[in-house]
Design a protein that fits this description.
Radius of gyration: 18 Å
Number of domains: 2
Shape: globular
Strand order of the largest sheet: 1-2-3-6
CATH architecture of the largest domain: Alpha-Beta Barrel
Order of helices and strands: HEHEEHHEEHEHHEEH
Structural class: alpha+beta
Number of helices: 8
Distance between the termini: 28 Å
Strand content: 15-25%
Largest sheet: 4 strands, mixed
């Protein structure tokens, strides 16, 4: 959480932008989901609790949970697998936990912006065991995405050996990352990129996950 985008401000911004549903997914943490849920009680904004988990392969996975309690239990499983590295606020920023009135209740000491000791598959399986839904995050990015890891070192080889699969359509839409991201572009943008057969399989898997939410 950041002081300029606390619980009341996020809910107020959602109302201003006509957003009636929002997922709260801090990096490897669910400590602030309850604050947002409480702040939204007298509004029409529905809050979905969750986390953005970073796997041992450095893949980011958005895990949405049924409720705040389940999200915290899932977070316990995540924290148990975090390397014991202390956060350096001057370098990585503060890791604040707030309540629905923006009162700071604690500050996380362990560094949250790092991969946990669990693979992407293990994270997805664990989230599913809690009744959660996993979505591959920002698959179009060159780092921290499932496609980037799957295609590492394979683009040039594929484009020469299988030219028929050299160009495919990808979809991407905006994500959060700050209060300025709310109400931004949410319609998918279509663009072309060079990709391998493995990448197409990854995109098919993402498409299945995406449509299961609808």
């Amino acid at each position: 959480a950041e002081l300029d985008m606390g619980a009341p401000e996020i809910i107020a911004r959602c109302r201003d932008e006509g957003i009636d549903m929002i997922a709260i997914t801090d990096h490897n943490s669910a400590r602030n989901t309850e604050a947002l849920s409480r702040a939204s009680e007298n509004s029409d904004v529905e809050v979905i609790p969750g986390l953005e988990v970073q796997s041992s392969e450095d893949i980011h996975i958005v895990c949405l949970m049924p409720d705040d309690k389940t999200a915290r239990v899932f977070e316990d499983w995540i924290v148990e697998r975090l390397p014991c590295i202390r956060n350096i606020p001057d370098k990585f920023g503060t890791q604040l936990v707030i309540d629905e009135n923006n009162i700071i209740t604690e500050e996380s000491d362990i560094l949250l912006v790092q991969g946990i000791d669990a693979t992407a598959d293990e994270i997805v399986d664990r989230a599913r065991s809690f009744g959660g839904l996993s979505i591959l995050a920002h698959i179009d990015r060159p780092v921290y995405s499932y496609v980037a890891v799957a295609l590492k070192g394979r683009r040039r080889c594929c484009s020469k050996s299988r030219p028929s699969t050299s160009w495919v359509l990808l979809l991407k839409a905006s994500t959060g990352g700050g209060s300025s991201g709310l109400g931004g572009r949410t319609e998918p943008e279509i663009f072309h990129t060079s990709i391998t057969d493995e990448g197409i399989l990854c995109l098919c898997a993402f498409r299945i996950l995406f449509h299961s939410v609808q």
